[in-house]
Amino acid sequence: MLAVGLGCLGGALPRPAEAATEAAFVSEQVFAVAYGKIAEVYLQQVDFGRLGLDGLKGLATIDPTARAERQGNTVRLYVSGSLIGEYAAPSLSDAAGWAALTTKAVERARLYSPTLYQAVPERVYQVVLDSVMSDLDGYSRYTGTQRATSERAQREGYGGIGLSLETANGRTLIRNVLPRSPADRAGIRSGDQLLAIDGDLTARLNESDMRDRLRGPTGTMVLLTVARDNNPPRRAPLRRERVVPNTVNASVSEQVGVLKVDRFNAATASNLRDAVLSTRQSMGKGLRGFVLDLRGNPGGLLDQAVAVADLFIAQGKIITTEGRHPDSRQRFEAGPDDIAEGLPLVVLVDGRSASSAEVVAAALQDSGRAVVVGASSYGKGSVQTVTRLPNDGELFLTWSRIYTPAGYTLHRQGVQPTVCTSRTGQDDPVSLLSDLRDGRARPMTQFAGWRARAADDEEALARLREACPWKEHEPELDLKVALRLLAEPALYQRAVALSSTNTVAER
């Protein structure tokens, strides 16, 4: 509780901040939902005595004179060296109590700090929650309203018409049109010029304005004026639908389907299925196999990673997850179908392949369904829940660890390629495969001991990292190695045998 006898707190108090306009209130609900979720689902039980106090210390990011400290069961708040409030500290497990205290302390500090008074509530949420989240692991984070809105659109989709724009030489051109989207069905094509949106000339709008005008609630209408080549402009009325960006790009090289997946959003598995079927249909019996390129893929939705792995694995375990919350303990099994019908598969990874990308690579490797080529992946072996807060910001909280079919955790160590392309001095596809061809390649079973300890053992982790370092190398090298493997079925089968599951611990 805030002490009311401020006259005996000691020191001369600064005068309450004055402003021409009334400052917006900071909502206790934002802190209450955030703190409550941390208490409920975070991987480990937390101490709100530490988290709550550190959250208040975050105010110093806005006003360096703002300071919070705890002495016994009392939290004291200072601005410009003067004590402005005292609060009884809630218990270490009282998330709601700390949310209430945080709100009261923030509003009190804003009365005595002109800088804090002028800060918009979103800025206050950001600095407080950033400070709270810094006490957790490196993957738990708070995302403010503007960025969260953009990330949700990429992850879950948005109301729109399915096109993207680029501005060049004073003209607004349509860059990409999503297949089967409202724009596609209306006959709009890449390269068309966009002249107006709802009658307003695009020449008078910036890119942000145009994007906002194209998006809107599903079911609503937008009128585009477009022109192609030297033809007269035409008007195209379009009804907005839920649009999920396509993260899959398919091509063919040397009779091999190359499937590049940039990240995992709500449509990734569906788009990848379509790409595989389309490639098989166009190539027929001449198709030798597939390359699934996950390099640079930072991850995304876990259910989509499981679904992507399930596209190719006919049976067996995909992953298991374990955490403190009962709902975080899950086991995912593959269904009976393989969309590629057994065609050889090579997966490409690098040091930027993380999270869901690692789930897919590990499941395909451990099951013996694919050969992994490239450099050791990032090592983000945890699952985050996403909570939408009352201010439309988002809270990402780690709530479980991921374990591969072989039983090792991806945490810190990532996925070890069967064919490593990142060692110093190895830049020729033929020489890279010579050990495999001559029977000298190291089987994945040799990594089992290091894998079992690497999550907590620095020496074991260093051994794994040295075996196939994160080092950047020529991007085309990975694909060249993959294509050569797929061109030699016997060599590919030898690599698959080396990749087969070696159980670290049954889960």
TrEMBL record:
The keyword Hydrolase applies. InterPro entries: ClpP/crotonase-like_dom_sf, PDZ, PDZ_6, PDZ_sf, Peptidase_S41A, Tail-specific_protease. Pfam families: PDZ_6, Peptidase_S41. CDD domains: cpPDZ_CPP-like, Peptidase_S41_CPP. Residues 150-229 form the PDZ domain. The keyword Transmembrane does not apply. It comes from the Bacteria. Keywords: Hydrolase, Protease, Serine protease. Gene3D superfamilies: 2-enoyl-CoA Hydratase, Chain A, domain 1 (3.90.226.10), 2.30.42.10, 3.30.750.44. NCBIfam families: prc. Belongs to the peptidase S41A family. This is S41 family peptidase.
